[in-house]
Amino acid sequence: MPTDLLAKAAVSAAAVGVLLSLLKQAGPRASGLAAAVPVNSLPALFWLAVEHGGRYAAAAALGSLAGTALTLLLGWAALAAGQRRDARKALAAPRRATRCTPLLAIAMAGAMSALVSALSRHSAPQFCGLVAAVPVIGVCATFAAHREGGSSLALQVLGGYLEGMWAKAAFLATLGGAWAAGAGAWAWPAALASASIALVAQHSVRNSQPGGVRHG
Fold it and tell me: Is residue 180 very low, low, confident or very high in pLDDT (cuts 50, 70, 90)?
């Protein structure tokens, strides 16, 4: 692997390690939310912007947004099916703490950054963004929760993950739009603000629903 790809992988992995260091101990919902943090796509999109400019990265962000939308659709279908099948078991099972998987996230962020950088030399930006949005961390976190606490815990993690995916979608949409508009580096704080607003709005709606199902 070329030296520049190794360097990008190492920098991305280190950044994700710092980001997730505070999430080593987390409840099911928080673990799912942490898994939704775009640890794969964010470093990859950053390097695409550095190498190819904002227009290219904006198209890649659009590809990541499409992948995120598909993940949401499939995830909600899986969550609805799981809740119907295991409703009684989910209500009766105790809630146990689960760990976020920082080592896996670190490794995947590094590998994804290197892969997307390599693909960008030969592939369309939308395809690079789509690859960067593959939900490896979310799938692994859900399976790990199922191994630890069964379907009840897995459904809680999946629910938190899907909640976080809405914020991820807001982040990617704002990031791509800002890059397309020529915002440059200002696209990042705008995207972070958009994701934060989405999380706050979700939290407010969730708390305003009496008797609503809580994931953690």
Answer: very high
